[in-house]
Amino acid sequence: MTAKEILAKLVSFNILSKESNLPIIDWISDYIKSYGIDTVYVYSKDKTQASLHCRIGPSVDGGIILSGHTDVVPVKGQPWNTNPFELVEKDKKLYGRGACDMKGFLACFLSVLPKMVATDLKKPIYFAFSYDEEIGCISAPELVAHIKNYYSEKPKYAIIGEPSMMQPIIGQKGILDILTEINGSEGHSSGINKEVSAIHESARLVMWLENKMKILANSTTNQHFSPPHSTIHVGKFNGGIATNVVANKVILEWEIRSIPQNETTTILSEFEDYCRELEREKQQLFPTFKIKSTKLHPPVPCLETSKNASIVDFIFDVNGSSNVSYVSYATEAGQFAEAGLESIICGPGSITQAHRANEYISIEQLNLGVEMIDKIVYKLSV
């Protein structure tokens, strides 16, 4: 199958984060096994989802992992011009949800599998497929740990094929998403002086987060990133039932995106200290006033691959690049690096097409992705 044919099949699987990805994983596994390669499932606790990995080539140290996620973001409410789960070609572009982010890269390396099997590889190539990447890179740590423990040899490199226009990316910000619940008192708004409004106190918390970002921006910067500092953003603010009712509950959902010089958990800890301070103040008026924060996923680490790392020279050789870049979004690359693999982000398509209606990958980019995988096969066979 060609990369385009495989991509059409992958796009046809309407699998969002948190949903069972077994249909697409089973299809991928069957495809790989049809070439005589064994696959390994790494199931979620409830067995409804699974990551998958396999090895092509000899059991020797120094191989490379090609990795990507199988889940996509929702299409509900987006003005698509075509069926998002049917690959449509128009003007040398392939439209479909996940075509760019990041089933295009999966299609690239799966299409080259026949050549890998037929080639006398001197070092192995591993495939790795994860789930729930779009909601916090949930499964990658367990996947990479399983790969390291399952095989007797040690892989050296990992390429996470997020859309980068085939440009090597060696740095990314870390991320942590948090849900904060504020529980105040309820009453008639005419007596606001006797109540503790969850909305009013939530506004204080939002202003603390805003001021904290300003402090970070003025104290610690990293010019590789845009913006060059850690950011804090409140994306959801839900609470209240009427203008004349003091709100007794608010839920905030917010995120921290950190440069390598800052820790997301440290920023959260400082926020928690302020929450305890606010609780002590407001509990004098309403004793059960409470603020509770919950991490929505484990912290996703930054990626800090050195320009002098050998994987940089490796990727320059196989895709013709001579420069590296940095991004402010998070990927699973930081988790592969944290596990001890030299890691880099490099894949076909543009991140500007991700998560939006009429997502597409150009045929040119898809072909460049296949070309890079072909060169990896050659490089590992000489």
Automatic annotation (TrEMBL):
Keywords: Amino-acid biosynthesis, Arginine biosynthesis, Cobalt, Cytoplasm, Hydrolase, Metal-binding, Zinc. It comes from the Bacteria. Residues 170-281 form the Peptidase M20 dimerisation domain. GO terms for molecular function: acetylornithine deacetylase activity; metal ion binding. GO terms for biological process: L-arginine biosynthetic process. Its cofactor is Zn(2+). Pfam families: M20_dimer, Peptidase_M20. Coiled coil: none annotated. Belongs to the peptidase M20A family. ArgE subfamily. This is Acetylornithine deacetylase. It comes from Tenacibaculum adriaticum.
